[in-house]
DNA sequence: GCCACTTACTTTTGCGGCGAAAGAATCCAG
DNA sequence: CTGGATTCTTTCGCCGCAAAAGTAAGTGGC
């Protein structure tokens, strides 16, 4: 393996907690940090000093409140130097690689995509290598690479099984490290998106958080105590076995009335085509449904009820503080959001805490960004968990 | 408030973790404890010394392995002195109080029940007081009382709302403390059962654990990271809104096809009576179903499918390591367990980890024991969380 | 313009908990 | 009886923290 910069610096547990808190919580004064981390003011001085000296943190010129009832010595907020390091995130699909460069804060500063000439591991590694070369030229201070792939990933480095790439046990992290000389983290794409949302997105700071992705398939991510829960059937088509409506439609792709049959884009298109004989894109179907065309409207309504049922069940059993709907197949919410919320209401106790439901139509660059966040977590902060 | 012995002794965090580990993990040597708690051998000597001196722990005469490949100085297992303190647990129903006395290990050493002359708070407190007097005579060294009631309990002391007792905002803990002079913990009965199972029962040491109780109603308890998750609709009939089968039976008690309609004892009896015109006990219905009587068999089969669906959904979304089915209404599993497991299988991914499903028919003394465990947690170990 | 007051941060100091390492205890094997 | 193995105890020193005192930098009263 190439010599690797390991973690940025050997961060003590105390320093790490400060770094993460500032990274996730925006600029924070030392006093505020002391309160949040339950430490004394003196400890904060001690912990922040090396972080500032190393360039990870800087004192920023007091953004806060303009000139209210503030009194006493002004606080001196600290912030991470987001640009001090850059990260690359790749999302590998069966025919494309989508790439982004992000800051330490996971803000996307560049995008770069390329078609995949072949699915052979060597070809994929070479494509990733060339893309990294190109990006490295424009973005110095690269600290690491994160790669998201659909399929089963082991130890954040080996692609154990990826049906669409037709890979088995490919040590992708090692190969790309050899090619690029940068440390590499590989993860399942849904897992990466979930981690990204947990750290920097909708799930920031939450104890119980669920991500449901709808696209070509169904993805499910569960975050408990700030940590993502891994599970055996991850990314192996479990949504085909979630029976939402036993009398629902039967499609070639899943059990009758399963979440896959009812909700995924290919299966919604299949249903409409089977009924009308015409092939339509997902967007066309949504448009027709919104315009009141009976058949697409019926399919979309049924999907919305299925989604509402799923969300209600998750809400009832997992008691999450928030559920994020992501992926390309959540456009549904714009057309039939009312049906979804009504279905949820019908299957929840009136006194139950209302479900905080967030919708985020994500494109492939969001998936790539998720992979970059993995790299940030592992490489800079040395955090295997949060 | 009566002078209260507070925690047994002021336990340092380190001492507390040792005490809990030994309490839950049986006799353990210092070396074993050092490994489990990730401490050095020296620390264990330091931490165990005061615990032994105070009488909470003792060295026991080496139960373990007979004479195998053991070499070197024999280990000196430590165990809690289970009898060093006794605890009372009460389960209050609308017409009865069920009481138990337990050891520190939550082993039941005595049972004592009494009918409730009235639901007035004063009468209930007096009944509890007299029962405590009786039990105290036979069991010295009482350290505290735990009380489980159906309904909403706040701060482990005030009964906020209990429909069947017709109470609102009764400071039960305070009243019983005044009457008995012992520290008192009050908790919702399901919550107490869940805590007991988490500490001493089926959920011992698990990260994710679910308890589903079936009886007069449906109870749900979620344990994540070893801690029970509280929720707003707790014990307020949420099961009426879990729609398991939209085409299921309609009963006076819940929405069509809800878990309450399909699974609870009163609703199963209602269904059988509505169809056959004859009133039957739950046990009779189970017997008839087992004997192949069509109508009861149909109701029980439908209930079993509903239970299987619920368990599968919980398994899919919560990913628990274990699900405990408890209460008086799980006799179902003996008659139609096969249907339940088949339904679960149909709605789970083949690669998913099989659900560890445990069934425990519990009586009222198990509920009372749960309340006693709460007292152990709070009063002895000063643990608001595990 | 001076001074009291407030709040933020830094420095100093002391203590508690922990690990490392050496030593004592207690077994087994030859 | 000696040497090895394992557990437990003792000693020692370090690290990390809090407490407290000191310094810095602002506001407002007079």
TrEMBL record, chains A, B:
Its domain of life reads Bacteria
The family assignment reads: Belongs to the ROK (NagC/XylR) family.
Taxonomic lineage per UniProt?
A: Bacteria, Bacillati, Actinomycetota, Actinomycetes, Kitasatosporales
Q: In which organism is this protein found? A: Streptomyces muensis
Q: Which InterPro entries match?
A: ATPase_NBD, ROK, WH-like_DNA-bd_sf, WH_DNA-bd_sf
Question: Which Pfam families is this protein grouped with?
Answer: ROK
Q: Which SUPFAM superfamilies did the record assign?
A: Actin-like ATPase domain, Winged helix' DNA-binding domain
* UniProt name for this protein: ROK family transcriptional regulator
Entries under PANTHER family matching the protein: BIFUNCTIONAL UDP-N-ACETYLGLUCOSAMINE 2-EPIMERASE_N-ACETYLMANNOSAMINE KINASE, ROK (REPRESSOR, ORF, KINASE) FAMILY
């Amino acid at each position: 393996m190439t010599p690797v910069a390991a973690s940025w610096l050997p961060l003590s547990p105390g320093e790490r907690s400060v770094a993460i808190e500032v990274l996730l919580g925006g600029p924070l004064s030392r006093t505020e940090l002391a309160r949040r981390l339950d430490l004394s003011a003196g400890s904060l001085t001690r912990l922040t000093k090396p972080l500032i000296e190393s360039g990870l943190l800087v004192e920023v010129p007091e953004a806060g409140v303009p000139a209210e009832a503030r009194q006493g010595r002004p606080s001196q907020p600290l912030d991470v130097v987001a640009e001090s390091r850059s990260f690359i995130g790749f999302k590998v699909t069966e025919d494309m690689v989508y790439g982004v460069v992000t800051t330490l804060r996971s803000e996307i500063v560049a995008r770069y995509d390329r078609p995949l000439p072949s699915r052979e591991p060597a070809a994929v590694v070479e494509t990733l290598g060339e893309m990294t070369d190109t990006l490295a030229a424009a973005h110095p201070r690269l600290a690491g690479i994160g790669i998201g792939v659909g399929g089963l990933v082991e130890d954040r480095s080996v692609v154990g099984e990826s049906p669409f790439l037709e890979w088995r046990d490919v040590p992708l992290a090692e190969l790309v490290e050899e090619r690029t000389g940068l440390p590499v983290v590989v993860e399942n794409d849904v897992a990466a998106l979930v981690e990204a949302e947990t750290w920097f997105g909708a799930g920031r700071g939450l104890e119980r958080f669920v991500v449901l992705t709808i696209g070509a398939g169904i993805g499910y991510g569960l975050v408990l105590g700030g940590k993502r829960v891994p599970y055996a059937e991850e990314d192996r088509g479990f949504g085909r076995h979630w029976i939402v409506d036993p009398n629902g439609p039967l499609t070639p792709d899943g059990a009758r009335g399963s979440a896959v049959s009812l909700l995924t884009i290919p299966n919604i298109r299949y249903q409409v085509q089977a009924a009308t004989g015409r092939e339509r894109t997902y967007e066309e179907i949504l448009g027709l449904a919104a315009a009141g065309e009976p058949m697409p409207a019926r399919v979309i309504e049924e999907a919305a009820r299925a989604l509402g049922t799923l969300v209600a069940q998750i809400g009832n059993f997992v008691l999450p503080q928030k559920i994020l709907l992501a992926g390309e197949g959540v456009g549904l919410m714009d057309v039939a959001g009312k049906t979804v919320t009504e279905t949820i209401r019908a299957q929840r106790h009136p006194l139950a805490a209302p479900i905080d439901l967030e919708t985020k139509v994500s494109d492939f660059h969001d998936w790539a960004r998720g992979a970059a966040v993995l790299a940030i977590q592992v490489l800079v902060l040395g955090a295997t968990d949060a």
